[in-house]
Specification:
Elements: H1 3-15, E1 34-38, H2 46-51, E2 55-60, H3 63-70, E3 79-83, E4 96-102, H4 110-123, E5 124-135, E6 146-149, E7 152-154, E8 160-162, H5 166-172, E9 177-190, E10 193-205
Parallel strand pairs: 1-2, 1-4, 2-3, 4-5
Antiparallel strand pairs: 5-10, 6-7, 7-8, 9-10
Length: 206
């Protein structure tokens, strides 16, 4: 088991369901679209995807995450959750109508971010779409922890987070056509302090 994978396993073991809350955005895709979610975690988005009528494959390299996520599927007719690494996925070329990469690429070092980008391009059908979301460099947590490489920090739980710029996102997926690349900021309060969360969301087509 690689160190970052072990860190995620331990986090799920200690805290259980890490991700919850409402799903604020899902794109418009036709029913029966074949969708891949990379780094599915405990399956927060899966019920909303299933309600859209999509055929969902949700993967994560954490066995504990996949065990949680599998409970979100009412039966195999709606798709499946499986243990797989986003950098080296077990699927054939050009089999998915859409790939979701939401807060997974940013937890990888630079060489692995490039591997994920290459896998996304390989897996998308012509005309298929990538939906990407990661934290940007003006998020309030930027700079917290030990810097392992430029704009990448490892915090106390052992998990790294990379903070992107819009230009970096476009460069990472230069093999795809950008539809939109935007930074979204919103205020939040932590222990009485007003802080800024900031994410880059992007849509690309193949």
């Amino acid at each position: 088991m690689i160190p970052d994978q072990q860190a995620w396993e331990e986090d799920y073991c200690q805290r259980g369901m890490l991700w919850s809350g409402p799903i604020h955005y899902l794109p418009v895709l036709p029913p029966a679209s074949r969708v891949l979610e990379l780094g599915c975690g405990n399956g927060k988005t899966v019920p909303a995807m299933i309600r859209r009528g999509w055929d969902v494959t949700a993967v994560d390299f954490s066995s504990r995450a996949v065990a949680f996520c599998g409970k979100a599927f009412p039966d195999l007719s709606h798709g499946q959750a499986m243990i797989a690494d986003a950098r080296w996925s077990p699927f054939r070329d050009a089999v998915f109508d859409a790939v979701f990469a939401v807060h997974v690429t940013g937890h990888m070092p630079a060489p692995d971010r490039k591997r994920i980008a290459g896998e996304v391009i390989r897996l998308l059908r012509p005309g298929g779409m990538l939906y990407f979301c990661e934290f940007s460099a003006d998020d309030f947590r930027f700079g917290k922890g030990h810097e392992t490489e430029e704009a990448t920090f490892r915090r106390g739980n052992g998990i790294i987070t990379h903070y992107f710029s819009e230009q970096e996102v476009e460069g990472l997926f230069s093999g795809l056509t950008p539809v939109s690349v935007n930074t979204h900021r919103w205020p939040m309060r932590v222990r009485g302090c007003s802080l800024v969360r900031s994410e880059i969301t992007a849509v690309f087509t193949r």
